[in-house]
Design goal:
Layout: H1 6-10, H2 23-30, H3 34-47, E1 50-53, E2 56-59, H4 61-71, E3 83-86, E4 93-98, H5 101-109, H6 115-134, H7 137-144, H8 151-171
Antiparallel strand pairs: 1-2, 3-4
C-alpha cells in the first residue's frame, strides 16, 4: 500500500536545499527519537523516496515530488473547474462533480457513482484532470509507475494523503 504511516513521510520536511535529510531536525520537528528517524529513513530508502550516501540521506526525484505535494497539501483545495462525471457510453453528465480530494474520496467511499464508471474515468481522464487542476505530480508519478492502477488504489492514496495532512497539522503547527 502506498503512503502508510504518516509520520514516516513527514521526515522529508527535514530536508535542506541540497536535498540532505537532517536527522536531528527531523527528530525535533516530529517529536520522535533520532533512532526512530533512522529506522524510518531506512524504510524510505526501500520505498525510493531517499537514497543513502556516505555522508547521509538525500531526497530522490520521487522524494522531491512527494515533498512538493506535502508542502502544498490541501486536500480540500478547490480546483478552478470541477471534474464532471459522465456516463461514458452516452456522454450524459451524471449530476455529480468534485473539485477536491475530500469530495472525490466521499464519492468513492459512499459509492455515489457506479464503480465501473469511476474506473473508466480514472483510466481515461481523471489523472490528467488531477495533474492539471490540482498539480499533484506525485500521484501522476505513482500512476506511471503502476503503483496506483485503479479506483481502490486511488481511494487508499487519498485516505493516506488526508491522514498525512492531519498528522502534519497536529505535529507541525
Amino acid at each position: 500500500m502506498v503512503l502508510e504511516n504518516p509520520v514516516k513521510y513527514l521526515i522529508l520536511l527535514a530536508s535542506s536545499d541540497d536535498k540532505k535529510i537532517d536527522i536531528n531536525k527531523a527528530s525535533e520537528l516530529l517529536k520522535i527519537s533520532a533512532s526512530t528517524v533512522r529506522k524510518y529513513l531506512n524504510l524510505l530508502v526501500k520505498e525510493g523516496f531517499i537514497e543513502k550516501r556516505e555522508d547521509g540521506f538525500y531526497l530522490t526525484s520521487l522524494g522531491e515530488k512527494f515533498l512538493k505535494t506535502i508542502k502544498s497539501i490541501k486536500t480540500d483545495f478547490q480546483a478552478s473547474s470541477p471534474y464532471i462525471i459522465t456516463d461514458l457510453s452516452t456522454g450524459v453528465p451524471i449530476p455529480l462533480s468534485f473539485k477536491n480530494y475530500k469530495q472525490l474520496l466521499c464519492i468513492i467511499k459512499n459509492e455515489f457513482v457506479d464503480k465501473n464508471t469511476l474506473e473508466l474515468h480514472f483510466k481515461q481522464y481523471m489523472i490528467n484532470w488531477i495533474k492539471n487542476s490540482l498539480n499533484d505530480e506525485f500521484l501522476l508519478e505513482l500512476t506511471n509507475r503502476g503503483l496506483i492502477k485503479n479506483i481502490d488504489d486511488l481511494k487508499n492514496y487519498l485516505e493516506n494523503l488526508i491522514s498525512i495532512e492531519n498528522t502534519m497539522r497536529e505535529r507541525i503547527t
